[in-house]
Design goal:
Layout: H1 4-13, E1 17-19, E2 27-30, E3 33-40, E4 51-59, H2 62-71, E5 76-77, E6 87-91, H3 97-111, H4 114-121
Antiparallel strand pairs: 1-2, 2-3, 3-4, 4-6, 5-6
Length: 123
């Protein structure tokens, strides 16, 4: 099981990652490109969507998203808001630290410029 502190520690361990989180929601960027954030659930139409700190959204390619969704609906899901968007939603209490590390590293690599990706590979 992973918590928000673990997500923060792993996300910020990636080169030039920046924490843009607020008191109520996580947001992580690399060179001003967001790669992971807190899911905000639509509870009532036309009302603000409250954050769910037990769910994180991570960027991913469309084919990876479909693969993750099919692999384990207990861990990964999407909503109408995220349909057609290159991100998957992850229940933090259903993944371990190694899995969330992989889930955060992949979108970081997609958003990071080539020089940073090379720097990360040389670690």
């Amino acid at each position: 099981m992973v918590d928000v502190d673990t997500v923060r520690r792993i996300a910020l361990s990636l080169p030039e990652s920046r924490d843009g989180s607020t008191a109520t929601a996580l947001r992580f960027y690399v060179r001003d490109m967001q790669f992971a954030w807190t899911y905000h659930e639509r509870v009532h139409p036309r009302r603000p969507r409250p954050p769910r700190l037990d769910v994180v959204a991570v960027r991913c390619a469309a084919e990876e998203k479909e693969s993750l969704l099919a692999s384990d609906p207990g861990k990964f899901f999407t909503t109408d808001h995220y349909r057609g968007f290159s991100a998957v939603l992850v229940y933090l209490d259903c993944v371990d630290e190694q899995e969330i590390r992989s889930l955060l590293k992949a979108p970081w690599r997609c958003q990071a410029p080539p020089g940073l990706r090379r720097q990360e590979n040389s670690r």
